[in-house]
């Protein structure tokens, strides 16, 4: 019994056509009669022939591979976005090549390799404005930004509606009766940090609560910076009744600082974050947070990128996704775990 795999010429002999005709059918060419196409497809099915994906890609000038570049591959939010992108890509017979670039120069080198040598058909760039990497964004190449709206008119993007998310988080604290609400931001050179700060300010303004610059502390997304932020406020004698941290890791640091200072959460200090990391419900106490659907962001970005690759005009160029308030015990004694 032969164990060899059928070839395109085997299919051609069975169908009674040339191997070029079989190739045209496989590659979706319209220059084939319907009855001939049906005969070839029947022969392919009968023989169990599987086209060589690499050869097909070369013939079409496509790799059926997309690249997703993020500042790192260890951050939970980045990894979740990539996971969603991979799921969506596979549904369309594409692969995702995930890679990290920690600085602009590494990003430039990576783009030169991937785009310059046509190793991928399109790019997803996570946090394009975290530094000057956006200066090395390729021109006239299928591209989608994740985590920030594009400053360029011709670039599509998918991101969280950061201003709205921060507004809703702050509003939650206000509805609980808090008026002395501190804010721990991410790096202020990043768009999402500024947008979340704007949402915080809007919620305060609508509630008639004065915005105080001294109640805003800049962090760097790390738990350590959240811890330092609350300790700094305590040392200044500006102990808030609530803290909105712009991500869960910084919120975790705030909880640690409160515990070290014998400040009880939530009776003396309410804390809310953003992301809903897997461990958020295991913090002490469990963290109230704004849950964003990171895998969906990756899926939407991939869907948008494939539309661009297929020369279709995406229905939405700047997609903003909402987050869901998850109430736990860090803001309410009755919150869920």
Quick summary:
With 337 residues, the protein is α/β, with parallel strands linked by helices. Helix content is 41%, strand content 16%.
SSE string: HHHHEHEHEEEHEHEHEHEEHEE
How many strand segments? Answer: 12
Strand order of the largest sheet: 2-1-3-4-5-11
Counting DSSP H or I runs of 4 or more residues, the number of helices is 11
Strand content: 15-25%
Oligomer: single chain
Alpha carbon gap, first and last residue: 61 Å
User: What would you call the shape?
Assistant: elongated
Radius of gyration: 26 Å
Largest sheet: 6 strands, parallel
Helix-strand category: alpha/beta
Low-confidence spans: pLDDT under 50, at least 5 residues? none
**Percent range of helical residues:** 40-55%
pLDDT averaged residue by residue: 91
Protein architecture, described:
- With 337 residues, the protein is α/β, with parallel strands linked by helices.
- The protein is 41% helix and 16% strand.
- The protein contains 11 helices and 12 strands.
- The strands form 2 sheets. It has a 6-stranded parallel β-sheet with strand order 2-1-3-4-5-11, with helices on both faces. A 6-stranded mixed β-sheet has the order 7-6-8-9-10-12, sandwiched between helices.
- The longest helix has 16 residues.
- The protein starts with 7 loop residues before the first helix and ends in an 11-residue tail after the last strand.
């Amino acid at each position: 019994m032969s164990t060899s795999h059928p070839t395109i010429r085997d299919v051609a002999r069975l169908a009674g056509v040339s191997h070029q005709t079989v190739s045209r059918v496989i590659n979706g060419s319209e220059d084939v009669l319907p009855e001939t196409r049906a005969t070839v497809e029947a022969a392919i099915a009968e023989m169990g022939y599987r086209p060589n994906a690499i050869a097909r890609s070369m013939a079409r000038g496509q790799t059926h591979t997309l690249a997703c570049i993020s500042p790192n591959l260890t951050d939970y939010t980045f990894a979740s976005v990539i996971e969603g992108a991979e799921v969506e890509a596979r549904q369309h017979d594409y692969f995702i090549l995930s890679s990290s670039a920690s600085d602009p120069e590494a990003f430039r080198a990576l783009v030169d390799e991937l785009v310059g040598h046509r190793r991928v058909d399109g790019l997803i760039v996570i946090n394009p404005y975290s530094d000057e990497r956006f200066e090395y964004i390729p021109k006239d190449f299928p591209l989608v930004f994740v985590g920030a709206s594009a400053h360029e008119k011709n670039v599509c993007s998918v991101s969280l509606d950061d201003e709205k998310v921060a507004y809703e988080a702050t509003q939650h604290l206000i509805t609980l009766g808090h008026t002395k609400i501190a804010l721990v931001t991410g790096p202020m050179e990043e768009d999402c940090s500024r947008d979340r700060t704007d949402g915080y300010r809007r919620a305060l303004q609508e509630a008639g609560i004065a915005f105080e610059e001294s109640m805003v502390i800049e962090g760097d997304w790390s738990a350590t910076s959240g811890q330092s932020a609350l300790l700094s406020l305590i040392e200044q004698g500006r102990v808030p009744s609530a803290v909105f941290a712009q991500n869960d890791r910084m919120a975790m640091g705030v909880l640690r600082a409160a515990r070290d200072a014998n400040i009880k959460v939530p009776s003396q200090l309410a804390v809310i974050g953003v992301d809903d990391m897997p461990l958020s419900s295991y913090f002490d106490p469990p963290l109230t947070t704004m849950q964003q659907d990171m895998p969906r962001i990756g899926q939407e970005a991939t869907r948008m990128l494939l539309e661009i690759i297929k020369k279709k005009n995406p229905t939405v160029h700047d997609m903003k996704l909402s987050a869901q308030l998850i109430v736990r015990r860090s803001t309410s004694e009755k919150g869920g775990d």
